[in-house]
Structure formats: structure tokens, C-alpha cells
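[Q] Does anyone have a clean C-alpha cell version of this?
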Amino acid sequence: MTPLDAVVRLSWLAASVAFVVGLSRMNSPATARNGNLISAGGMVLAIGATAVWLLLAPPTRSFNAVGWAVILVGIAVGGGYGLYSAKTVK
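[A] Here you go.
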């Protein structure tokens, strides 16, 4: 395991913890906004770590078009649905 792999995996772990903590804080209306921000930060960290991992891949791995496609489609679909939900919630 390279140092890059270790840093990326630790980032993924921190992102998953932030996502779960954010979801648990969304149980109360008083902490829901904070929980949403924590979950969003975790998701940004996970996407950023994955992008770094794909960009700085060792020379033995080739360009991963499928990985980039999954990230871009996920951002488009998730962002679009999140924007729609945010505008239509009362």
C-alpha cells in the first residue's frame, strides 16, 4: 500500500464518519441544518479523496474513465435532485 492509498483510505473513513454523524444530527429540527452541513462536508471529502486517488494513480494503473463517469453522473444526479428537493420543501 502506497502512502497515497493510506491517506485516501483514511479520508474515506473520516468522510463516512462525518456522513453518519450528520445523518444522526438530522433527527432533531434544532440540529438538522448542522447535520446537513456535516453530511455534505463528508460527501465533499469522499469525492475529493476519490478524485485525488484517480488523478495521482501510480503509473501502473491507466486512466479510469469509468471512475470519472461515475463521479460526474453522481454529482449531476445527486446535485440535481438535491436542488429540486431544496426548492420544493415547505
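[Q] Thanks! Anything notable?
[A] The two ends are 48 Å apart (CA to CA).
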